[in-house]
UniProtKB/TrEMBL annotation:
Keywords for the protein's UniProt record, in alphabetical order: Membrane, Transmembrane, Transmembrane helix
Regions that span the bilayer: 29-47, 67-94, 106-128
Organism domain of life: Eukaryota
Keyword Transmembrane helix: yes
Species whose genome carries this gene: Rhinopithecus bieti (Black snub-nosed monkey)
Cellular component aspect of the GO annotation: endoplasmic reticulum; membrane
Name of protein: CLN6 transmembrane ER protein
Gene Ontology BP term (one): lysosome organization
Length: 158
């Protein structure tokens, strides 16, 4: 038991300094998501011809979505992520009324965020009935950290 506690991520929920770590991490990511949203707001064009994504970009959507999934789950910043995603969605709908469409960069970022949301939903659904993680992450918003899953289920087998 002591070895598992030493391996526990210092900012993990329920660990030492959990409250300070979680709120600090969320505050630390606010400028990152503001910059992403600002960048995204400039990714619109009036031409539908520029509304496609090149092949190599399509190949990079999966690693990008996986990276954001890890950032959202391990950093416990789901609220910030979902707020940014819905702001991006609202901007897309607003610009569509002005007949402006996402260019390839905007499509890439929006596709990455959509894939991330799907991955987070699958992650939560997969671990929904895990009694230990449910106890560790109480509350309405349940997004367990990959590190907590690893220390609980994977490293304990070795």
């Amino acid at each position: 038991m002591e070895a598992a506690r030493r391996r526990q991520h210092p900012g993990a929920a329920g660990g030492p300094g959990a409250q300070l770590g979680a709120s600090f991490l969320q505050a630390r990511y606010i400028p990152f998501f503001l910059i992403l949203f600002t960048y995204f707001s400039g990714c619109f064009t009036a031409s539908k011809a520029e509304r496609w994504m090149p092949g190599p970009a399509l190949l990079l959507v999966a690693p990008s979505g996986l990276y954001y999934w890890y950032l959202v789950t391990e950093g416990q910043i789901f609220i910030l992520f979902i707020f940014t995603f819905f702001a991006m969605l609202a901007l897309v709908l607003h610009q569509k009324r002005k007949r402006l469409f996402l260019d390839s960069n905007g499509l890439f970022l929006f596709s990455s965020f959509t894939l991330t949301l799907l991955l987070v939903a699958l992650w939560v659904a997969w671990l929904w009935n895990d009694p230990v993680l449910r106890k560790k992450y109480p509350g309405v918003i349940y997004v367990p950290e990959p590190w907590a899953f690893y220390t609980l289920h994977v490293s304990s087998r070795h």
